[in-house]
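Quick one, T. Sequence first:
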Amino acid sequence: MHDLSFALLGVQVLLDHFDGFFISLVITGIPDLSTGRAGRRGFVMNIKRILERITGCSISITYTDNRVNIISFTRKKGHISLRLQRIFMDAPLDVVQEIGQLLKNPGRKTPLINEYFKKNRWRIRKKARLTGRIEPVGRVYNLKRLFDRLNREYFSGQLDTIVTWGRRSPRRAVRKRTLGSYNAETRTIRINPILDSPGVPSYFIEYVLYHEMLHAYLGIKKDHRGRMRAHTPRFRELERRFRHYNKAVEWEKRLQSR
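Structure tokens:
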């Protein structure tokens, strides 16, 4: 095996040659810029399609929580298997394009990738241990099946979030809880089991699930005052794109009035 290494503006690139081709971008002492702001996108990009167009190869993407290897890939017979730190899910178009150019030419400089990473490193959290049982199959609804369909339709299959029903509790206690939640540290979506009922329409469960998937997709942003925000204008814009949005909102109002 032949190894090469060199520095790119605070990011070290390791090139390892074996059967195919492997490249890894490794963090090397980049300062923690807690005041950095995440980049914004004007639309939901299909990163996979953009990279395929640039490289001319078929591409499979796995988003990771790796705090060291932020970009790595193997190339074999016209296919690229890319592992990408999940903060790049929210990267602007110019950064995505530079990733594509990196896939074509691993020796090139990556100033946009490096700058984006430095500004958004504060969003990477230490991995937390997942506790509790994972139960996506309920008495009425299969959350994993719903998740997979929404993931394909709205997120191009990019999310690898865990989805499960929450713990069942006495009805009075359940009413005081939120309908869904997302834990960024464990990448887990939990849906209130009160919704696992024949009386709850599937479009409403999909809406609650989609809402939490948006949290997983967009993450938490800092506004111009440095405050953390989850329900940003961009979040609300994408939320309204859910195909049954109006119907789901009306049903939620009736649920809250009971």
